[in-house]
Amino acid sequence: MQAAIFVLVVLVFVAVSGALVRLVRVPLPVLQIAMGAALAWPVRGIHVEIDPEMFLLVFIPPLLFSDAFGAPKRELMALRGPILDLAIGLVFFTIVGFGYSLHWLVPSIPLVVAFALAAVLSPTDAVAVSSIVDRNVVPARLMHILEGESLLNDASGLVMFRFAVAAALTGSFSFAAASLSFLYAVAVGILAGVAALFVAANALRLLNRIGGVPAEAQVLITILLPFVAYLAAEHFGASGILAAVTAGLLTGSTGIFRFLGVSARMQTISLWTTFSFVFNGALFIVLGLQLPEIIRKVPPELSSRHWLLEPVLTVLLLTLCLIALRFVWIWIGDITAGFAARLGKRKAEPFGLRVRLAGSVAGVRGAITLAGILSLPLALQDGSPFPARDLVIFLAAGVIICSLVIASLALPVIARGLVAPGEDAGAAEERMARVGAAKAAIAHLESIAQTDEDEGDVPGLKLAAANGIVAAYRRRIAASDEADEARAEVREAGRLEIDLRLAGIAAERDALRAMLRRGEINDHTARALFTEITLTEALLNGRQTRK
Fold first, then answer.
1. d(CA 400, CA 364)
2. What's the rounded Cα separation, in Å, for the pair 115 and 99?
3. Distance in angstroms (rounded) separating the CA atoms of residues 253 and 246
4. Is pLDDT at 331 greater than 80 in this prediction?
5. DSSP per position, 269-312
6. Phi-psi region for residue 345, left (φ > 0), alpha (ψ -120 to 50) or beta?
7. Which residues on neighbouring strands pair with residue 385, listed in sequence order?
8. What is the mean pLDDT of residues 522-537?
9. Which of 237, 219, 277 is nearest to 63 (CA)?
């Protein structure tokens, strides 16, 4: 019963945070972490123990799958060089640089444990990045690189974290064995994601052939897909995170949705949108719930001189160290890419100082870092306590909060003016696609209208119907015309048409409610008609917003 109440409380606070964020004007993850900390801070507040493996299984696969599915695959493929450079190269650079810096700053932390903390801090959080980084102020190229990096560096960071923990437990480390294990984890993780996607596609194909299967059964398969991929990879000792990401990246290109009915597609899109919001919010609230207990147990190594000042300064210095390491690596990679472009006689696209700094500050840490560090064993193989366990957990939590706060405050200032005003490239591409699709539809409709009437058709009826639809397509093309006057005139006509259709929909809804109250129609009929009206209204509102 207590677990059920806890889940309901978290869901209520997720809903409240969605409304409150419009009033307090702070990034949603920061607000949700603060709300979680407020729930746990009082003496009789809510306390919850995190099982790291369960935490990763419940939250990470669906969130990473959703982010990977929505990621721009074309841009990620075009930028695969810098993405892999950050997702793999920067991870190893961070482990070495941050590990030695931490051991020098806090000598009580053994070097191998410092490497473990550096490894679990090296992945950036895809959820936090997408929540904090504003696409309107950050250049699209940098945003795509940050998205791709955060999707892939979780695997490399957590694999190296496991190696560091194993070295701390056994007292030995083999570079050759670690390299082979890393390659195995990556390769098998990718194969597990592909295999899970293959199984899901065949299951949906089978349901499609059977026919008459409820749409909810098809939707359930798409929900289970990331969990199956994650568990399959973990079962074979590989990266479950990379398996979930692989499944998400390949889902759109494999055409798996062609086996879903119209109703199932609509439900899947709506359900995943809701899942993403709920899981994101619950994840950060649960993170906030851990903070008061971690803060209450400030390690004595950091509070010998001053209870508050020394821990805060240590966390701040470590966070700035991570930002500096990212900046150096991005700067080196930018110079290397420019040099390679000149050798290949290609045009170089350097980032510039402010973009490099924005990319460095945007590397925030989040849920995977905390879940990973909480999975540290309590004792070594000889039964002695794991060295500096409470200390590194405290530092990891502090760096998560500090990186989120610094990014929230500094990124808007750093990125101001980086994106030139004007039409977004994505909007121009969408306009071009709409015109192309409309022209193809017009050509096809005209060819149909010119064919002979089918037997039994009312003479001229097909031509009249086709002309009406073609006229609507021509208005869409005119609305996308580059000429401002033509576009303005057509848009005004379109706006009036949408307003009238929305007014008609409002009248339909009122009439249906009246018929339902009078008992002329039942609940099932009303629900079906209300759903149809709502979908039409949503489409019209979307068109009205774009105009």
1. 7
2. 5
3. 12
4. yes
5. HHHHHHHHHHHHHHHHHHHHHHHHHHHHT--GGGSSS-TTHHHH
6. left
7. 379
8. 75
9. 277
Confidence band, pLDDT 50/70/90 cuts, at residue 459: low
Alpha carbon of 142 to those of 81, 124, 129: distances in Å? 13, 14, 12
Residues 95, 171 contacting (CB under 8 angstroms) = no
Round to whole Å and give the CA distance between 358 and 69.
25
Residue 316 identity: L
**pLDDT level of residue 135 (50, 70, 90 thresholds):** low
Cα–Cα distance between 248 and 229 in angstroms, integer?
10
State the Cα–Cα distance between residues 157 and 371, nearest whole angstrom. Answer: 13
pTM above 0.85, yes or no: no
Residue 114 · residue 180 · CB < 8 Å: no
pLDDT band at residue 545 using 50, 70 and 90 as cut-offs: low
195-223, pLDDT tens digit by residue? Answer: 999 999 888 888 888 877 788 888 899 89
pLDDT band at 487 (very low <50, low <70, confident <90, very high): low
Q: In degrees rounded to 5, what are phi and psi of residue 303?
A: -125, 20
Residue bearing tokens 């960071």: 157
E strand or H helix at 102, and its extent? helix 90-105
SS3 16: helix
List the Cα angle 109/113/119 in 5-degree steps: 125
Q: How far apart are CA 148 and CA 145, in angstroms?
A: 5
Residue 420 in 3-state DSSP?
coil
| Other CB atoms within 10 Å distance of the CB of residue 351 | 22
Closest by CA position to 131, among listed 347, 302, 367, 304: 367
C-alpha to C-alpha distance for 35 and 22, rounded to whole angstroms: 15
Kindly report the three-state secondary structure assignment for every residue of 216-264: HHHHHHHHHHHHHHHHHHHHCCCCHHHHHHHHHHHHHHHCHHHHCCHHH
- CA 266 – CA 263 distance, rounded (Å): 5
- pLDDT band for 298, please (50, 70, 90 cuts): confident
Query: pLDDT over 90 for what percent of the chain?
Result: 12
Nearest partner of 369 among 44, 2, 24, 50, judged by Cα: 50
Q: Is 48 helix (H, G, I), strand (E, B) or coil?
A: coil
Least confident range from 83-92, 111-120, 232-241, 377-386: namely 377-386
| CA-wise closest residue to 101 among 279, 254, 328, 283 | 328
